[in-house]
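Pair request: fold both.
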Amino acid sequence: MRIYLDHNATTPVDPVAADAMMRSLEHLFGNASSVHYYGQQAKAAIDDARTSVAALVGAEPGEIIFTSGGTEADNFAIRGVAEALEPIGRRHLITSGIEHEAVLNTFKALAKRGWRTTVIPLDATGIISPDRLRDAITDDTALVSMMHANNEIGTIQPIAELATIAHAHGAVFHTDAVQSAGKIAVSVRALGVDLLALSGHKFYGPKGVGALWVKRGVRLAPFMSGGKQERNRRAGTENVPGVIGMGAAAAVALKKMDAEAVRLSALRDRLENGILAAVPNTDVNGLRTSRVPNTTNISFDRIEAESLLIALDLEGVAVSTGSACSSGTLEPSHVLKAMSLSSHRAQNSIRFSLGASNTEEQIDHVISILPRIVTKLRSLSSVATR
């Protein structure tokens, strides 16, 4: 039995999206910038996909800019605002310690170029405190970037309140919604944000395509030079099959989202409660109430997470120790460290992220094999430390 519990890293492409992409590869080969029939066919298909992606986040189609993925969307938002507002003296940027590397490393790059940056720490709940943002923000702040749902622990942030604080100081607010769009209801209007990033392969679309929602009137400098695609915002010939696949996946996600959230939440709780009951010295990282329905992050005392990940993989179960973009590093999770958890706990935690293919039978199988695996690894750890 093979069980995939790493949907926050990526999801399999939905058959509807795959079919739409195959049809586009066969019939829509035109360049969407061309004025002839073939080009206009491709352009019309992109516009249809733009409408579907906009509907997923409660936006207008004209506010959606397609990108190569969530990382580019985050870079575009942060660098674009920083460059646009630099001439008026706003050179301060704020984010949190639990952001994706696409945000944190962009902040580091801008700090080397002279921008002043503030990274807000969190407590063990994994929830960003509005009071800490109030203490950090100044009248020089150009941008506040806070993720909607965390990719490792799943916590949902109070984005609407955080955005209100930012706007009171004249700052632009960006949110990375890569892990929330398609899982829970997301409305750019209700959140009150100015920019929102999402990625197709997180909701059963293809890899290599994402989008940035930009509120009308937001000053944003393009960070790529080239042609006039995407309303002069993002140069480069459009990835027509990828965009079509993302649009098809967005339409499916919007239709299934409410029912799937209920189903996944029940499965996640079944897994979580089963592990906590069957395996001693385990605990859930982050607040258990305000989070996306498919994610749990559990610490296993006296075990290295990498060892447990490999042992589970040998049993046919795919999990992760955190962000796929950080795989291969021996460093403890920067998310858990930002929550002031101990280095040991940050190194003994496993993320389980569920998705469309998971069943009660699979969840019960994982619960049944974990006690044996954990007991063996703990015994080996005890021998090694003698």
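--- second member of the pair ---
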Amino acid sequence: MTTVRHEARSSDLQRRLFTVIFRSDTPAGQFFDLALIVAILISVATVMLTTVDAINDKYGRILYLLEWFFTLLFSVEYGLRIYCVRNRKGYAKSFLGVIDLLSVLPTYLGVIFAGTAPMLVIRILRVLRLFRIMHMREYVTEANILLDVLVGSWRKTLIFVYAVLTLVAVFGTLMYMIEGEAGGFHSIPDSMYWAIVTLTTVGYGDIVPVTPVGKTIASLIMITGYGIIAVPMGIFFAEFSEQSRRRARGRHCPACGAQGHDPDANYCKACAEPLDEQTQR
């Protein structure tokens, strides 16, 4: 009997927390979201100020304590989100769930690895939750589409990267053999660096070919670079179109953008947000 009462109280607490944390159509939910966004903006400003030497020298201790305060605050918030959703794995894998986790990891990693604190600026992405308050929650779906595009096109992207690295190795070796140290190509890795800069049409100019043959090859690499730039764009565009078609055929959650719900589903499988009739397309 005691166990049943405990489970009932726990379930009631989860529902209340879910209403406050995930529902922006209630006064408590709106207040929570606004307070969260203010905390996010202040924490991001704190991280940025730590990189200003004059400010950091004078207020470094205060900024450090603020950074840990916000990290612990967001850690508790993330734990509560995991606690109150039905599908915890689904939320953790969603776009906003991943961003919530990444917003606290750099501070903890900074205890082991130095120089990770500036990565806390990623917290600014959490302001995407503002869309929920402004009744623009459906636009969060686009962020999930981008993640699906990256996941769905990784094989083609990997092949493309391998092809580029092959060209870089070939062109870099040729330039090392043709130009040599006299032209600033001191090693094959240095020559490959030059090939990457030239192939991507960046052109820093720190290493420049001086022989006619080297200039000819450099011109060829530059022309090839313009054609290569269009390849990943085509890959991502094709995958984006496919993902958009898939989502158009199903139902998506207006809160987190999760897709693939059954036609008779009433709640999101990722964040447990109710699915209304407007999510049917």
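Observation on the second member. The first helix runs from residue 2 to 22.
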